Amino acid sequence: MANSFDREEYSAARVKALESLLIEKGIITAQTVDKVIEFFEKDMGPFNGAKIVARAWVDPQFKARLLADTPAAIADMHFPRGMAGAEGENMRAVANTSQVHNLIVCTMCSCYPWPVLGLPPYWFKDPTFRARAIREPRKVLKEFGLDIPESVEVKVWDTSAQIRWFVLPERPAGTEGWTETQLAAIVTPESMQGAAKVVVPAETKTQGESE
Predict the structure, then answer these.
(1) What is the pLDDT of residue 24?
(2) pTM
(3) What InterPro entries does the annotation carry (predicted)?
(4) Residue 83 near residue 120, CB atoms below 8 Å
(5) Is 111 annotated as a binding residue?
(6) Are the CB atoms for 20 and 28 separated by under 8 Å?
(7) Is residue 81 left, alpha or beta, with left meaning phi > 0 and alpha meaning psi from -120 to 50?
(8) What whole-number distance in Å separates Cα of residue 168 and Cα of residue 92?
């Protein structure tokens, strides 16, 4: 989004100032902040979502369960604590196909499936993105570098505290025979938001054949 980098830096500076003030007042400690950061680095983040997507790509039965009852299917993955907390208990997955492309947005604030996607990116919280994604999703996606053909339907899902949506992207061609670990490595947070497709990096196009 235009000028989002400048706004993000401004917001980051304000957060840092607020953090310093809270530490100075004794409300939190530096260790408190470190623990929160560590939690999102190790337990809760897009690496969980990537594993879910990879499993769905190789296991049709798991994919069916994921789309029918997302929390129950995720529970089968035996992830660390926190997957069914306030940010994850009402998660729902929706699948991209050759006929339908899905995009998630939160029109009210920035509700997000933290357990599987981590912290929301700045642009997801941006009021301009939230408004335009509903009105002109194709144009917004094109600005992200994703040109959706007119023959493909674009569906926009308004995520909220009641339902936190995420996208099951299409499996890219050329990954036949890949392991779940190999597949998970190419899944990006943007693809699970519907803002991008999963692509096979040039240097790994032969990965599935050589390993």
Answers:
(1) 76
(2) 0.79
(3) CN_Hdrase_a/SCN_Hdrase_g_sf, CN_Hdrtase_a/SCN_Hdrlase_g, CN_Hdrtase_asu/SCN_Hdrlase_gsu, Nitrile_hydratase_asu
(4) no
(5) yes
(6) no
(7) beta
(8) 10
Residues 94/83, Cβ–Cβ less than 8 Å = no
Q: Which residue has the tokens 């599987």?
A: 116
To the nearest 10°, the Cα dihedral for 197, 63, 50, 135? 40
pLDDT score, position 146: 96
Give every residue of the chain whose pLDDT is below 70, as ranges: 1-8, 10-12, 14-15, 18-19, 21-22, 30-44, 80-89, 204-211
Does residue 98 have a known ligand-binding role?
A: no
User: CA 27, CA 143: separation in Å to the nearest integer?
Assistant: 42
Quick check: 87 and 70 in contact, CB under 8 A? Answer: no
List, as one string, the DSSP characters of 129-154.
Answer: HHHHHHH-HHHHHHHTT----TTSEE
At residue 102, φ and ψ (nearest 5 deg) are -110, 145
pLDDT at residue 111 in the model? 87
With beta carbons less than 8 A apart as the criterion, state whether 68 and 120 touch: no
Residues classed as catalytic: 106, 109-111
Cβ-based neighbours of 76, under 8 Å, separated by 6 or more? 62, 65
Query: What pLDDT score was predicted for residue 88?
Result: 63
Amino acid identity for residue 131 in this structure: A
3-state secondary structure of 110: coil
